[in-house]
Amino acid sequence: MKALVTGARGQLGYDIVAELNRRGLTAVGTDKEETDITDSLSVESIMLKERPDVVFHCAAWTAVDAAEEEENKEKVFLVNEVGTKNIARQCRAVGSKMVYISTDYVFDGTGTQPWKADCREFKPLNVYGESKLAGEKAVLEILDEYFIVRIAWVFGVHGGNFVKTMLKIGNERETVRVVNDQIGTPTYTADLARLLVDMALTEKYGCYHATNEGGFISWADFAAAIFEQAKYKTQVVSVSTSEYGLSKAARPFNSRLDKSKLTENGFTPLPDWRDALERYLKEIDFRWVR
Q1: Environment class of residue 266 by beta-carbon count within 10 Å: exposed (0-12), middle (13-18) or buried (19+)?
Q2: If residue 4 lies in a helix (H) or strand (E), which one and from where to where?
Q3: pLDDT digit string (tens) for 49-70?
């Protein structure tokens, strides 16, 4: 199998390329320096050159708060909607499978029940979520066979994330305030990459949800686990979202994702998030933040 990975220098894209290489599969990584996904001719050029069997579309505008700024909104949709349309059209033209990475932000985050993979009760709370939902709709309109995989609370070796932020802050402060009413499950990109490559080797198309196993937690719970595993003495001050203060973009309170469709289709679930965190801390050698 030959795969094209967009956003190959990002957290997830980097790990997908590494997973493909580990399995002896052909990986072609591309990022904005090589391919402008918002330019249909640029996308057509690399797709005709490489003619991949599958495209892992990881490239996206992911700066959630910056997306709310008026001068950025057009750019956000250009990347997340138009860019996805360009990829999907070329997948159809070349005959490539497409794996589109989406987000729990397509839902409004109300209630306490986990969101089902085939749920269509979309109601994004922010521009980022709206743009990713627009990307999903583009895939559905253009392709008959696709993988749409919604993820949440992602952390990986390459790029910034919550774990690295907590390690840095924990190295500088005795206490840190973290919200306790936004609930979800962390996702380690190295584990997710394995699952996505497994998917791409099948024809079990559809929408899926993928996070690590281990149950649902708050960001405050996650921060406490990070400090415990890193052996930091930093104390977590658990606060509500309203107490913490408003950010530019509204965040969902309920980021619980139902992953049962994975096992129903024969895919191996991701390991427990605690195990993933332990492996991750060893991988990044977290002492660099001390």
Answers
A1: exposed
A2: strand 2-6
A3: 999 999 999 999 988 989 999 9
For tokens 């309203």, name the residue.
Answer: 242
Phi-psi region of 120 (alpha: psi -120 to 50; beta: other; left: phi over 0): alpha
How far is it, in rounded angstroms, from Cα 43 to Cα 280? 33
Strands 97-103 and 217-218: unpaired
CA atoms within 13 A on the CB side of 3: 32
Compute CA distances 96 → 106, 153, 200, whole Å.
25, 28, 10
How far apart (Å, rounded) are the C-alpha atoms in residues 114 and 12? Answer: 23
Positions marked catalytic: 128
Cα 235 to the chain's mean position, in Å?
28
Judge whether 210 and 115 are in contact, CB under 8 Å: no
The DSSP line for 74-113 is: HHHHIIIIIHHHHHHHHHHHHT-EEEEEEEGGGS---SSS
E strand spans, 194-283: 206-209, 212-213, 217-218, 235-239, 270-272
Q: What is the pLDDT of residue 286?
A: 57
Least Cα distance to 185 among 157, 209, 155, 213 occurs for 213
- In whole angstroms, give the CA distance from residue 240 to residue 244: 6
Q: Which one, of 81, 23, 77, 20, lies nearest residue 52 by Cα?
A: 20
Please name every residue paired with 2 in a beta bridge, in sequence order, or none if there are none: 26
145-176 residue pLDDT tens: 999 999 999 999 988 999 999 999 998 899 99
- Please enumerate, as own/partner, the contacts of 242-248 that have beta carbons within 8 Å and a separation of 24 or more: 244/177, 244/178, 244/179, 247/65, 248/65, 248/66, 248/68, 248/69
